[in-house]
Write a structure and sequence with these properties.
By secondary structure, the protein is of the alpha+beta class. It contains 3 helices and 5 strands. β4 (87-97) and β5 form a beta hairpin. It is rod-shaped, with a radius of gyration of 27 Å.
């Protein structure tokens, strides 16, 4: 009888653990992840038609994507994944004509 009572109590306590998420247990910590080139509004404001590739690289840094077959555009990509699951992404494409900025595409 005593064994039966202890086993029943153990099963009841174990069953209560199945809904542990509702207790507000913090769980696993997830870190923020940044990838690519940081792109700020100030950096984009400095870009304008007529800048050379070297000047663009000074302002924006080395482009994340350079097409080997088409050197006339550089792609800058920035991704930020928050630990809580939110996701931000920003992309800028700088198009060159004869080594100078022709246009900037968001």
């Amino acid at each position: 009888m005593k064994r039966y009572l202890i086993t029943s109590l153990f099963i009841a306590l174990l069953g209560g653990c199945s809904n542990i998420d509702s207790l507000g247990f913090p769980g696993v910590h997830k870190i923020d992840i940044q990838q690519g080139n940081l792109i700020t509004d100030e950096m984009v404001e400095l870009l304008r038609p007529g800048l050379t590739k070297r000047q663009v690289q000074y302002v924006m840094g080395t482009p994340l994507v350079v097409d080997t077959f088409n050197q006339n555009h550089w792609d800058y990509v920035y991704q930020y994944r928050h630990g809580d699951g939110r996701f931000e992404e920003r992309k800028i494409r700088v198009i060159f004509n004869q080594g100078r900025v022709a246009s900037i595409e968001p």
